[in-house]
Amino acid sequence: MLGNFQRSELRIEVPATPSTIRDRLLSPLALKKWLFPQQMSFSSQDLLTVGTKFETSFGSLVVGSQVERVDSQCLRLLLSQAVDGYHEWYWGEGWVQSRLEGISLLPLNLYQTATLLRLQQSLKLGERG
Questions:
Q1: CB of 4 within 8 A of CB of 102?
Q2: Could you point out which of 37, 95, 97, 102 has its C-alpha 20 to 30 Å from the C-alpha of 10?
Q3: How confident is the model over 12-51, as pLDDT tens digits?
Q4: Cα-Cα-Cα-Cα dihedral of 6, 12, 16, 21, to 10°?
Q5: pTM, whole model, 2 decimals?
Q6: What CATH number is given to the structural domain containing 67?
């Protein structure tokens, strides 16, 4: 894999309960809505479970994801293709934390920041998946 090794960990406050955050992160329909205009394709439209695979595209760049771990307050995705690494999400009452590590030509910290801000805005607006 070509690119630079990058690591970033960010935490933000959000106006939501752990169950609301979990629903927003594990529902393919909700993900498609709050991550728009990114294009996403899922192997299943059910809630993300261990083994679920999906792809996210940014123009011609594609990031493959596979759910490695999911529980009441954690989601861990193994990343492939345009990013070789992982993305972990942790959450609790009023906060979300994202940890992203991988090798890529993409600016991962910029992507991570934009993603967290989109999630925060989605939770403020109370959007449903």
A1: no
A2: 37
A3: 999 999 999 999 999 999 999 998 888 899 877 789 999 9
A4: 10
A5: 0.91
A6: 3.30.530.20
